[in-house]
Amino acid sequence: MKIINRYVIKEHVGPFIFALSALTSLLLLQYIARKFGDLVGRGLSWQVITEFMLLSIPFTVAMTLPMAVLVAVLHAFSRMASENEITALKAGGISTRSLMRPALVGSVLLAMFMLWFNDQVLPRTNHELATLQIAILRTKPSFALKEQVINGIKEGQLYLRAGYIDREQSGRLRDVTIYDVSDASRRRTIFGDSGFLAFAPNKKDILLHLYHGWMMSSPTNQPEQLNRIYYRENELKVRDVANSFQSIDADTASK
């Protein structure tokens, strides 16, 4: 009888491992594909990306393991029935209940494991994953400009449009328009014939040098009033445009 029990369990192990691996991989790739836009372009190290992938596995396994059990049971007993193994075992005096016993014992063990997994492992990894995602979202992407497009230098505060960008001479701009909406009481628009953009030494702030242009500003409560200032050279510094990844301690973050 022990040989038959081991044989029945062996018939389940292969399909179970295959189904668990395949389903977990598919769902994991689907989840990472949805989050791909949050990962790329932020200067993240491979350690952070690897940690994100590893923390995404537990909640995926919590969904795919019951599916893998179903696939394994259906495959094992269907194969044994199609090759008349169940008929031969019954002819040898082995009842259907005896054939089901190894699968039932295995299901009870898996149920106990998943009870512990869902109670202890899953909440912790989900919390660490949520904390990691917050840290990733706080990491601003490296600064890049596109021609003839309103680029958000600092979202909700400063926007820039450049008619031409010299790709070979990095940072050289022509036909520059800057929309400054950082002050709720006053809107300001800055025009420049040409300019130069560069990162400050701290790699977080950017410096905008504009030449031969003018600035127009208007109070929001007095739209009929317009101030215009002409300049030959103007320098604008924008702080905290880009920053590096900073991890958050999951133990100190609120759940």
Task: Write up this protein.
This protein is of the alpha+beta class and 255 residues long. It contains 6 helices and 6 strands, in the order H-H-H-H-H-H-E-E-E-E-E-E. The protein has a 6-stranded antiparallel beta sheet, with no helix packed on it. Helix 1 crosses helix 4, helix 1 packs parallel to helix 6 and helix 4 packs antiparallel against helix 6. The model has no long low-confidence stretch (mean pLDDT 85).
Secondary structure blueprint with pairings:
Elements: H1 2-34, H2 36-39, H3 46-55, H4 57-82, H5 85-91, H6 96-138, E1 151-154, E2 158-166, E3 172-180, E4 186-199, E5 206-219, E6 227-238
Antiparallel strand pairs: 1-2, 2-3, 3-4, 4-5, 5-6
Helix pairs in contact: 1-4, 1-6, 4-6
Key terms:
alpha+beta; 255 residues; 6 strands; single chain; 6 helices; rod-shaped
Strand order of the largest sheet: 1-2-3-4-5-6
SSE order:
HHHHHHEEEEEE
Overall pLDDT level: 85
Count of alpha/pi helices = 6
Q: What profile does the largest beta sheet have?
A: 6 strands, antiparallel
Question: What share of residues are in beta strands?
Answer: 15-25%
Distance between the termini: 50 Å
Q: Strand pairing plus helix content: what structural class?
A: alpha+beta
Helical coverage, percent range:
40-55%
Uncertain parts: none
Number of strands: 6
Rg over C-alpha atoms, rounded to the nearest angstrom = 31 Å
Which word captures the global form?
A: rod-shaped
